[in-house]
Amino acid sequence: MWLICYKEIIAIAMISFCFSCENELEKVNFFSKEVVLPNQSAIDIEVLYSEDAVVQLKLTAPVLEHYNDEEEPFVLFPKGIHVYFFNSKKEIESELQANYAKYFEKKKLWEARDDVRTINEKCDLLNTEQLFWNENKETIYSDKFVKITTAEEVLFGDGFESNQNFTKYQIKKLKGVISLKDE
């Protein structure tokens, strides 16, 4: 009788040991995962970008993290950005704000997410949850839901394309009431 109880105790102990090892292994794997840290970081940044001594844009952000050792290097703005775009007269032509942004250096592609707001010189306001800015093509676009508020109307759509200054734009899958002007 003691032999049977002894075998049962050993079996239960081995099963418990196996489960505890599995749990410990999960903990070890969790804590040993490779942590990717930025190569550079900065707080309360302001960047001016110019061409031929003419300021093109001004970018401000609470936090900047630069990851340049990655296969696809990027700059992260985890707490958001505010960008001012200037015309040749040094006047603000448009603005962009987002709660999160990421810049892919090789592609020269920006991704803005989480409450993205863009306003142009006519005070047309774009709201969306995700917006891309392609520096090479000088375009901004989104495949997400967009809302554009103008002085005359509010337009909705699923998708959007525009020049980078948000002065000439096209809404995809347009929804809402549209005012047409007689010419």
Q: Explain this structure to me?
A:
The chain has 183 residues and is of the alpha+beta class. It folds into two domains: 1-33; 40-171, lipopolysaccharide transport protein A fold, CATH 2.60.450. It has one helix at residues 2-32, and strands at 40-51, 54-67, 74-77, 81-86, 92-98, 100-104, 109-120, 125-134, 139-149, 154-163, 169-171. A six-stranded antiparallel β-barrel has the order 2-3-6-7-5-4. β7 and β8 (125-134) form a beta hairpin. The termini are far apart.
Keywords:
alpha+beta; lipopolysaccharide transport protein A fold; single chain; 183 residues; globular
Q: CATH topology of the largest domain, anyone?
A: lipopolysaccharide transport protein A fold
Order of helices and strands: HEEEEEEEEEEE
Shape category = globular
Strand content: over 45%
**How big is the Rg?**
26 Å
Low-confidence stretches: none
Strand count, sense and closure of the main sheet? Answer: 6 strands, antiparallel, barrel
Number of domains: 2
Distance between the termini: 103 Å
Q: Given this structure, which CATH class of the largest domain is correct?
A: Mainly Beta
